[in-house]
Amino acid sequence: MQIAANKAVSIDYTLTNDAGEVIDSSAGGAPLVYLHGAGNIIVGLEKALVGKQAGDEVNVSVEPEEAYGEYSAELVATLNRSMFEGVDELEVGMQFHASGPDGGMQIVTIRELDGDDVIVDGNHPLAGQRLTFAVKVVDVRDASAEEVAHGHVHGEGGHQH
Ligand SMILES: [Zn+2]
After folding, report:
1. What is one GO cellular-component annotation here (predicted)?
2. Where are the domains of the chain?
3. How far is the centre of ligand 1, averaged over its atoms, from the C-alpha of 152 (Å)?
4. What is the CA(11)–ligand 1 centre distance, in A?
5. pTM of the entire predicted model
6. pLDDT digits over 117-139, tens only?
7. CATH of domain 7-68+126-150
8. N or C, where is the chain less crowded by C-beta within 10 Å?
9. What's the 4 CA to ligand 1 centre distance in angstroms?
């Protein structure tokens, strides 16, 4: 069975950046299970997997625009420490939910602390990076009508509800 929209797909994968560092991998754990065509995984990887079947191996480099987007300097802001009232101790790397420019929620990460200045960054940690995936397709099956309606896979490796 070939990968197409509304298939439940299981993959083993290793994700590396341009420096060759492993960012994420399913090695040693269960395969990643996703619903194809539902935006569960980044668009560049989804495109590369169309038409593949169990046993196929795919190596693909995905540019930022089809991964986590270009790095945007506009998403970096300097806030005053007083805006973090209630947080005992601020540290670089801490993440907070904030309302974004479009009104939606976004996650911001503290990049730098400088006196009362807190420099926060709303970019995805992998924004601006080209990502290389080494993928082996483990299984392809038809998604159930319920999975398609929910936009995700149920059962092992999927949503448990
Ligand atoms: Zn569901």
Report:
1. cytoplasm
2. 7-68+126-150, 73-121
3. 6
4. 20
5. 0.81
6. 999 999 988 999 999 999 999 99
7. 3.10.50.40
8. C
9. 19
